[in-house]
Amino acid sequence: MSSPSGNQHALRRRTLSALREAGIGVALVCLVAVFALLSPNFLTPSNITNIFTQISINVILAVGMTFVILIGGIDLSVGSVMAFCAVVAGTVLKMEGLDTGLAIGLALLASMAVGSLCGLANGAVSAYWGIPSFIVTLGMLNIARGAALQWTQARSLYEFPDAFNNFGSTTLLGVPAIFLVALVLVAVGWFVLNRTVFGRLIYAIGNNEEAVRLAGHNVLAYKIAAFVICGAAVGVGAVIYMTRLTIASPISGIGFELNAIAAVIIGGTSLSGGRGSIVGTLLGACIIGVLANGLILIGMSDFLRQMVTGFVIILAVVLDVYRARLTRSRS
Amino acid sequence: MSAATQHPTALELHGLTRRYPGVLALDGVDLALHSGEVHALAGENGAGKSSLIKILCGADRADSGQMTLFGQPYAPVSPLDAIRAGIRVVHQELHMLDALSVAENLQFEALPRSRWGLLDRRAMDLRARELLAMVGLEDLAPATRVAGLGMAQRQLIEIAKALSARSRIVIMDEPTATLTPRETDRLLQIIRQLRQGGVTVVFVSHHLQELFEVCDRVTVLRNGRKVATQAMAGTRTDDLVRLMVGRDLAERAPRQAAVPGRRSAPALRVQGLRFRGQRGEAGLDFDLHDGEIVGLAGLVGSGRTETVRAIFGADPVDAGQIYRDGRAVRISAPRDALAEGICLVTENRKDEGLILDMPIRANLSLASLDAVSRSGLLHAQAEADVSHRMVAKLQIRLASIQQAVRELSGGNQQKVVLGKWLAREPKVLLLDEPTRGVDVSAKAEIHALLERMAADGLAVLVVSSDLRELMGLCDRMLVMSRGVLVGDLPRAQFDEAAILALAYLEYTRSPGHAMGAQVA
User: Fold this and answer.
1) What b/e string do you get for B267-279 counting C-beta neighbours within 10 Å, with b at 16 or more?
2) Do B82 and B1 sit in the same domain of this protein?
3) Same domain (yes/no): B222, B330
4) What's residue A108's pLDDT?
C-alpha cells in the first residue's frame, strides 16, 4: 500500500527524526552566533582549533556511552577506567627496548584491552544478574581508580616518546589530529548503529528487551557488547588524552563520565534507552564545549560556568520531554 | 422526542474531529448519550472508537468540535478533569501498581485517612472487600499483591475501581476480552445495576452478543465517521456487522477437517512436559501433525499459556522432551525453538510481541534479521521486500512501512506480530490468544490465513479463551484443566457444553475424590 499519502507520511516521519538532530544543530548554531557577537575572540581560527581540541576526549567517551545508554544502561566508571587505561598504556610506552612505533601501537592496544575488560565486567555482572548498571559501574568506578593508583603507587608516568607527545598538538589545516580521531569514532559508531544488525538490535533492546529475546536473539550478549564498546572507546580516549597532557596520571579523568553522559543526553538520546543517535551525541558534545569555551571568553567565572552547564543539561531533557509528547500526540 | 424527554441527555458530542498524521481518526462525529442508558460503541479496529474514548477521558484533545456534559461545556485537558467531571474509563490496557496490594490499587486516588491523617487500613480493607464483592471477587484478600494476579482478575479489579468513584458516565473498553463466560455474565449484571442507579455506560466489545444482551442503543463508527445510532432492540446481528464493515461478510464455511498427510512422525511431539509450577505429577503428552490446526482450550490460568511458552523455550521447564519430525530436540531458549522452525505468537503483543516505537519494517524483520543482512550488515532493500511481502500477505493496513507500529490499530498490530514470524516460514506455529482485541474482519482474515497455511502443511496450535473461535477453526481440540491435559477431541466430538465440563474437571475434583469424579 504505497499510496501518495503513504509516501508523504513516510517523508514526514523521516523529516521528523531528522528534525530532532536539526533542532540540536540549530541550538548549537545559535550558541555560536551569540558568542561570536559577544566576544571578538570567539570565532577566530585559533579559538576554533582550541574548541575542537577541548571536546575531542568527550566526543570519544560519549560515542561509547551512547551505546550503553541506548540499551537503557549507564556507565559511571568511565573516568576511573580511563585513568587505569592510561597508566597501563604509559607503562607499555616506557618499556625498554621497544621500537617507538611498536610501543605506541602496543600501548593503544593495551589501553583498549583494559577498557574492554572493565566494560566486559560491567556488562556481564549487570546483564547476567540483572543488577542495574548504575550500581555495578559505581562499583567499577572505585575499583578502577584504586587499580590505577595501585599500579603506579599513585605516581604519574611521563617522559613518553616525542612522536607520541607531539600527536596531541598536531593539526591538519587547523583541525587537531585528535579531533579527527574523534570524528572517525563518530563515523564508525554511526555506521554500526544505523547499518548493522548489531545496531538495530541495540535500539530494539532499549525499546523492548523481552520482544527481542522472544525473537530468538541473545540479549545478554548484546547488552554486554554495548559495555565492551564503551570500554574500548575509553581505552582510545585514554591514549588520546595522554598525547595531550604528555603524562599518564592515575588521578586523571575524574568526572569525565558525567560530561560524556551530559553530551549524550543533550544530544537527544533517551536515558530510558532505545531512542537517540550518534550525530546527536556529537552535537551535544559540541554544545558543552562551545558553552565552556565561550563563557570563559566573555569573562564568566568558573563557578557560574558550572551552573550554566547544569542548567543546559536540565533544559535539554525538558525540551526532549516536550518533543516526545508532541510526536506521541501526533501519532 | 418523547424519548429524549424521558432520558435527559448526559453527554452530547458535536462535530468531533481528530486528525493524526496520515489518517482522519474522527470525522465530525455527533453523538448524544442519554442519562442512565447502556450505549454500545461498535466498529472495527481503527474505526475511531479508541480515539473517541481518549478524547472523552481527557487523554487526548479533539482538533475541532464541542462536547456538552449535562448542559455544561465539557473540554477536559487531562484525565483528572474527566474523573472530576464524573467520567471514568475502564481501560483495555491495565494500569496497575504491581507492587501494591489490591486494596491500595482500588483506592489509591482517595485513600481513606484516619483522624491524624494516617492511612486508615481498616477502612481501606473494608471498602476493598465491598468493591471486590461487587465484581464477584469475594475470595480475593484485599492485602494480595497485584503482581501475582492474572489478567482476568486485574480486569475485574479495574472495573471495581471504576465503581469506587461516584461516576456519572462509565466507559468500558473491551472489558470482557480476558474474562471467562462466567465472569462476563457477572460483569453484564454489574452493568445492569449501574444503569438502574442512573449511570450511563458506554460499552465497547468485539463480542457482539454481549452488546445485544446488555445495551439499549448502539452507535456504529466506520473510518472515523458515525454511520448509525439506533435502538438495539430491532437490530439484527448481521445488520450490525454490515454497518461496521460496510459490506456483507461472507459466511465462513465450517472448516473441513483436514486429513493431514500423516507422515511417520508428527511435526511436534510433546512428551512428559512439565512447566514451572505445574500441578500434579503427570506431565503433558500430545502430538501435533503437519497441516493440522489444534486448539488448546481451558480456563484462564489452566496452564495453556505456560504450555506454549514452555515448548517455545520462553520459560524454563522442569521436565519433558520435545520431538520435531521424530527427532528429539533440546529447546532451552527461544532461539533453539526458532532453529527448529517453531514460532510463538505471544499473548501480550505490546509487551512481548512488538517494539511499538520502531518502524513496521524493523518489527517485521526482527525475527529474520539473518535473511535481510549479509555478514552483519543490514540490507535495506531486502528488508523492504520482506516487509512488503508480509504486508501484502496479511493485508496489513498502513500508510508506510516506515511508520511506527504504535500508530496502527490493534488488529493491524497483531498482523505485524504474525508477519514477524511468518517471514521465517515456520513449520510449527504456536499462537496464544491471537485474536484478542482484534476486530471482526481482521479476525476473519487471521483465521483464513491460518487455514490457508495449514493447508500448505503448517502445524498450528492455538490457545484461545473464545471457545466458539476454536470450534470453528480447529481440527482437533486439547482441553486443559488446572495444569492437566484432560481431553483430546476430534472435530466430530466438538460440543461446547462437553468442552466446558472438561475445562472445569480438575477444579470440581476435590482432593479426596478418586479419578472418576463426577462432572455435571
Assistant:
1) bbbbeebbbeebe
2) yes
3) no
4) 97
Using CA atoms, how far apart are residues A116 and A111, in angstroms rounded to an integer? 9
> Could you read off the pLDDT of B253-283 as tens digits, one per residue?
455 555 555 556 899 999 999 988 777 677 8
Closest A-chain CA to B309 = A214
Closest alpha carbon to A316 in A279, A284, A282, A275: A284
| B294 and B221 in a common domain | no
Q: Which residue of B has its CA nearest to A325?
A: B60
Q: How does residue A217 score in pLDDT terms, banded at 50, 70 and 90?
A: very high
Question: What single-letter DSSP state applies at residue A196?
Answer: B
The pLDDT confidence band at residue A3, using thresholds 50, 70 and 90, is very low
B413: which chain A residues are within 8 Å (Cβ-Cβ)?
none
H-helix or E-strand containing B275? strand B268-275
d(CA B260, CA B459): 9
Question: With contact defined as beta carbons under 8 Å apart, do A276 and A264 qualify?
Answer: yes
Closest by alpha carbon to A4, among B404, B222, A330, A12?
A12
Partners of residue A171 on adjacent β-strands: A176
Q: Is the CB of residue A196 less than 8 Å away from at least one CB of chain B?
A: yes
Q: Buried b / exposed e across B474-511, counting CB within 10 Å, b at 16+?
A: bbbbbbbbbbbbbbebebeebeeeebbbbbbbbeebee
pLDDT for res B516? 39
Partners of A201 on chain B (C-beta within 8 Å) are 369
Which residues does chain B have with pLDDT short of 70? 1-7, 21-22, 45-46, 92-94, 247-264, 280, 507-520
Instruction: For chain A, list the domains and their CATH numbers.
Output: 45-319 (1.10.3470)
pLDDT reported for residue B451: 93
Q: Is residue B175 part of a domain?
A: no
**What is the total count of domains within chain B?**
2
B332 and B442 both lie in a single domain: yes
CB B367 within 8 A of CB B424: yes
Query: What is the ipTM for the molecules in this complex?
Result: 0.87
Q: Cα-atom radius of gyration of chain A, to the nearest Å?
A: 21
Asked if B356 and A208 come within 8 Å (Cβ–Cβ), the reply is yes
Same domain for B335 and B434, yes or no, is yes
Is A123 within 8 Å of A227 (Cβ atoms)?
A: yes
User: What integer pLDDT is reported at residue B264 of this predicted model?
Assistant: 64
CB B378 within 8 A of CB A305: no
Q: Is residue B148 part of a domain?
A: no
User: Among all chains, which residue has been given the C-alpha cell 533440546?
Assistant: B330
Predicted confidence at residue A208, as pLDDT, reads 94
* CATH code of the domain containing B59: 3.40.50.300
Burial code of B326-365, b = ≥16 C-beta within 10 A, e = fewer?
eeeeebebbbbbbebbbbbbbbebeebbbbbbbbbbbbbb
The 10 Å CB-count burial string (b at 16+, else e) for B107-143 is beeeeeeeeeeeebeeebbebbbebbebbbbeebebe
Instruction: Return the residue of B nearest to A218 by Cα.
Output: B335
Other C-beta atoms within 10 Å of A162: how many?
A: 9
Query: B186, B155 in Cβ contact below 8 A?
Result: no
Task: Express each pLDDT in B422-466 by its tens digit.
Answer: 999 999 999 999 988 788 888 889 999 999 999 999 999 999 988
| Chain B contact present for A8, CB below 8 A | yes
Closest B-chain CA to A206? B355
Amino acid at position B81, single letter: D
Residue B236: which domain range? 1-86+201-246
Q: Which amino acid, residue A328?
A: R
- Has residue B144 been placed in a domain? no
Contacts of B391 in chain A (CB under 8 A): 1
Q: Do residue B51 and residue B17 come from a single domain?
A: yes
Asked if the Cβ–Cβ distance from B20 to A331 is below 8 Å, we say yes
Kindly state whether residue B301 falls inside one of the protein's structural domains: yes
If asked whether residues B82 and B10 sit together in one domain, one would say: yes
Q: For residues B279 and B321, state if they share a domain.
A: yes
